[in-house]
Design brief:
Layout (H helix, E strand, L loop, with lengths): L8 H9 L3 H15 L7 H10 L5 H22 L1
């Protein structure tokens, strides 16, 4: 069985205003779930992902510095 009502937005808002506070909270949480854009993440969640990601070890950093020095020497040789 299906019931369809043809009421305007202002009438819906008026009905919502007459709801008890607890019912308004339930309605708000349901609407927030429904209106949450999928696939988009907030900057705080991106920050969380980046902070939880892998980090360079001390040994890896030392290797990076050594390779950077070698590359710098090599490019200076080529430019002379």
């Amino acid at each position: 069985m299906e019931l369809r009502l043809n009421i305007g937005l202002n009438q819906v808002i008026g009905l919502i205003r007459n709801l008890p506070y607890d019912d308004k909270l339930i309605l708000k949480s349901q609407l927030d779930k429904e209106l949450k854009p999928e696939g988009k993440r907030s900057s705080s969640s991106l920050k969380h992902i980046l902070l939880k990601g892998p980090v360079m070890t001390a040994e890896g950093y030392d290797n990076y510095k050594d390779l950077k020095k070698q590359f710098s020497k090599w490019t200076k040789k080529l430019s002379v």
